[in-house]
Design brief:
204 residues; single chain; 11 strands; four-stranded antiparallel β-sheet; 2 domains; Immunoglobulin-like
């Protein structure tokens, strides 16, 4: 019930500088669970923003009245990575030893925010639902931890895809839940849902 809402939420997106992505933003109005109305959209060209500083942006909504005020910072990201299985970041024994030293009990209070990090190896999926008329799917996998999100590449025309990717997340809250969702890529349309699992960090 507000024409001037304040959300004050922070989201982390992992942006790799070899890509020229636009940040797309949509604002929606919800009357109830079934009725939604688009109130406006805007875009931010990430490549045009200065690095290592917080940029205050007031963005007019396209084809709609109003504007969106947001703070965007592009900064080097520590602890997040995507790699192939053959070059797993924790595969080196000396690196594992350094990590064990870093997170020893006696070092617990040196940096309260440095809880640790989670490494996930996404190997493959088996017997997925066929989402296409051809009897196949074009599956990719999305991993979400808190407000962090990473995803695999798409394996086309396959119900038993192998991704063999390693994802590393910094942990900000030990009570977070890792959500792993498989989607079917569908061209310009929204992807189709193929399945999901949720893994509480406290169960790892």
């Amino acid at each position: 019930k507000s024409a001037n809402p304040q959300w004050r939420e922070q989201f982390d997106f992992h942006y790799f500088s070899d890509r020229k992505d636009m940040l797309d933003i949509e604002i929606w109005r919800k009357d109830n669970k079934k009725h939604e109305e688009l109130l406006g959209t805007c875009q931010v060209d990430i490549t045009a923003l200065p690095m290592k500083q917080t940029n205050r942006l007031e963005l007019p909504l396209e084809k709609h009245p109003g504007s969106l005020l947001m703070l965007v910072a592009v900064a080097p990201c520590a602890g997040v990575s995507i790699s192939d299985l053959c070059v797993c970041p924790l595969g080196d024994p000396s690196e594992r030893q350094q990590i064990s030293q870093r997170y020893r009990i006696k070092n617990s209070f040196q940096n309260i925010k440095d809880i640790g990090f989670l490494q996930v190896k996404v190997l493959k999926a088996v017997d997925l639902l066929a989402a296409d008329f051809s009897g196949k799917s074009d599956p990719f996998c999305v991993l979400e931890l808190g407000n962090d999100m990473l995803q695999t590449h798409t394996v086309y025309k396959n119900l038993n895809p192998e991704w063999n990717k390693v994802f590393t997340f910094p942990i900000k809250d030990i009570h977070d839940v890792l959500e792993v969702t498989v989607f079917d890529e569908d061209g310009d349309k929204p992807p189709d849902f193929l399945g999901k699992v949720a893994i509480p960090l406290l169960s790892v």
